[in-house]
Amino acid sequence: MSPFLLNLLLALLWTFTWGSFDIYTLTAGFVLGYLLLGLYSRVMQVHGGYGSRVFNLLSFFMYFIRILITANIQIAIEVLTPTHYQRPRIVRYNVEGLSEAQVTVLANTISLTPGTLAMDISKDRRFLYVHCMYAADREAAVRALDELRDRLTREVF
After folding, report:
1. DSSP SS3 for 91
2. pLDDT digits (tens, 9 = 90+) for 31-59
């Protein structure tokens, strides 16, 4: 059984123990189950236990929200001002060493961010072609994509 499902089961057991099935009791049970599973993974010395995995996912989520807010502000400034700051470029980005699932998630996170779009992948599956609206400096665009890829592989996969 996956740790997340076990956490949900512990939360349901907690609500049944208290005899009231409401969002507050379920949330308290989920938090308590999370803490118990995190403690169990530390005591049993499970590397990359449930607690750290959820923390890593939350860390990536906060990072991605920050990127989304920054990109949305940049696009809003572009729309609201008469000056055009965009310097579009298509970047050929190396995705060697990533699994198909990792490339798919990377391409989707790139496309979800305003101002960037994952356009295509090469036939040999080595390169992802990304359209960037603000890429006057190719190296800076590649560094931003590298940071996204590294955080994805480290915190999600």
Report:
1. strand
2. 998 888 877 776 666 656 676 777 788 88
Q: Distances from the Cα of 103 to the Cαs of 9, 48, 118, 146, in angstroms?
A: 33, 22, 10, 13
Give the C-alpha separation, 144 to 135, whole Å.
Answer: 10
Please tell me whether residues 97 and 120 are part of one structural domain.
Answer: yes
- Return the minimum-mean-pLDDT range out of 4-13, 45-54, 70-79: 45-54
- Considering only CA atoms, which of 127, 52, 140 is closest in space to residue 89? 140
For residue 112, the enclosing domain spans 50-155
CA atoms of 7 and 33, how far apart (whole Å):
5
Mean pLDDT score of the chain, rounded to an integer? 88
Say yes or no: 37 and 74 in one domain: no
Residue 94 has pLDDT above 90, yes or no: yes
> Crossing angle of helices 138-155/50-80, nearest 10°?
150
Global pTM value: 0.70
Q: Alpha-carbon distance 2 to 41, whole Å?
A: 13
Q: Are residues 130 and 75 in the same domain?
A: yes
Considering only CA atoms, give the Rg of the chain.
Answer: 21
**Are 91 and 135 a contacting pair, CB within 8 Å?**
yes
